[in-house]
Write the structure tokens for this entry.
Amino acid sequence: MHFTTVVTPPQGKPTGRLDVVKAAAVARLTQEDWQKTRDKMLATCGQCHSRNFARAELEKGDQMIRETDRLMAEAIRTVAKSKVWLEIVYLVIPTLNDRMDLIREMAKWVRGEAGEHVPVHFSRFNPMYLVKNLPPTPLSTLESARRTALEEGLRFVYVGNVPGHGGESTYCPGCGGVAVGRVGYSVESVRIKKGKCEKCGTPIPGIWA
Ligand code: HEC
């Protein structure tokens, strides 16, 4: 399946095709949908293997994924406690990890475990290489993710992979002004002096030149 025009790139507006992708249950959106997909897979494996063998093998896979998540969480905690600068990038992939309730949970977790000042970047996914069957992330999804994380108290939340988007810039949590203006990878303006907002004096954590 190829959905190359699900989103019109300059405006990032989803066309009807995103609904088509969702309707095709490309991903497991809820526990119920997940169970349905799992049962279908078990039935397939069961054509050649015993059900118990297939179930145990699939559970091993689940366990591996859980273990990977646990290791990632541990890595984030370790770096957050150290003096190493930590930023988190969340690649938002339509239907796979774009549920706002999960993004909210993630933001809460980051705030609690790593701190409100840890920057989180919600990056736009683009279909390529092995995942060409999903559309680019709609801008509205990235913007909702950013809003949700800010609501949960994270101070520095960005929209990534969308050159020219306002969400690339750093905003002062004190006065809301642009502290570092960015377009793509270029810095357009810096209004930080000695680690503080030039306008209102609020500290802006970071390693500033
Ligand atoms: C069309 C029949 C068929 C289907 C469907 C199938 N398998 Fe297999 N599977 C085999 C065969 C035959 C082997 C043995 C291959 C070999 O030993 O070279 C095998 C081997 C395996 C092995 C390795 C076992 C070992 O001890 O080395 C695992 C694990 C496995 N299958 C899991 C699954 C799972 C999980 C599914 C469902 C997602 C599945 N298989 C679906 C036929 C099938």
Q: What stands out?
A: The mean pLDDT is 88.
